[in-house]
Amino acid sequence: MLYKSFISISVLAFMSACSAPDVKEADANTAEKPAVQAVAAAAQTAQKADDSKPNYVLKQTDLGSGVYMLAGQGGNIGLSTGDDGAFVIDDQFARFVPTILENINALSGGPIRFVVNTHYHGDHSGGNAEMKAAGATIVAHDNVRARMSTDNENKLWGRTVKATAPEAWPTVTFSKTMTFHFNGQTVDVMHTPNAHTDGDAIVYFREADVLHMGDNFFNGMFPYIDVDAGGSVKGMIGALDTGLKTSGPNTKIIPGHGPLSSRADLRKTRDILVDIQKRVQARIDKGESLDTILQSGILSDYSDLASFIDEKNMIKIAYRSITGQLK
Ligand SMILES: [Zn+2]
């Protein structure tokens, strides 16, 4: 029940990350024709109106040892505070950065040193340029920079996600793992291959025992898996397994979307995804077409998990991931 309220937040976040608003912002960067400039100006006006909204609030959750979760629209933010300054995981959207910075400054008091992007999606990396301007070094997997610097065709949504401006690209990238020693924490940043995308990272604060899963973990809802950007059901299950191996019974787990979670929540999500994969695989093995499987209602007992990703999109994602067919 609790996650119902997060679903509405999540839907807004995804709508912003995956549909029109993102395209408008990206188009504004490359606008050449007057008509496009007019659209860009309208988008800027709309953005200014959003910036001046006094009611954007981040929910702060104290996880101990100077670590916090900040939840609002867009991906959940992780924050480490202490003598070394602020270490941030994900930065939502550019228009929310003033509020994000207010929260960080109030909790940290020190400079923002690092922002780690868990992946390239705009609801997790949309504030990068503003964070850089505030003094942060942006860190992410190699493929995050690669994807942010080129156009990405998304066949599931039937649109192209435009490259972002260079100001938003990570300046430090890694291929497998990296470790920060910061605020008395040993912070493991680990790449999980071909999971939600091809550039995901999970972040574990060893001493605080806090794990940020990025969008490898949607708590209480069907997951979005960006198959067009190298994501896969198999890889996402692998990422959830890595999360289970990394965490212990008391680990506080920040999902990419949804409420603060436990290891038991992570296991439940993993088991459901394994079950979904099995059900779709069984239909494919019987020779059924995607259209037939979509009409079958094979996920109807999971209807509570429907949000931005409904049952049909979940089947489509699993089908495309398993067969490699980009329909
Ligand atoms: Zn994402």
What are the SSEs and their pairings?
Layout: H1 3-18, H2 20-29, H3 34-51, E1 59-64, E2 67-71, E3 77-80, E4 86-89, H4 97-108, E5 112-116, H5 122-125, H6 128-133, E6 137-141, H7 142-148, E7 152-154, E8 159-161, E9 172-174, E10 177-182, E11 185-192, E12 200-205, E13 210-212, H8 233-246, E14 252-254, H9 263-285, H10 290-294, H11 311-323
Parallel strand pairs: 4-5, 5-6, 6-9, 13-14
Antiparallel strand pairs: 1-2, 2-3, 3-4, 7-8, 10-11, 11-12, 12-13
Helix pairs in contact: 1-2, 2-3, 8-9, 9-11
Please give a quick description of this structure.
The protein has a single domain, classed as Metallo-beta-lactamase, Chain A.
Quick tags:
binds zinc ion, 327 residues, 7-stranded mixed beta sheet, Metallo-beta-lactamase, Chain A, 5-stranded mixed beta sheet, alpha/beta, globular
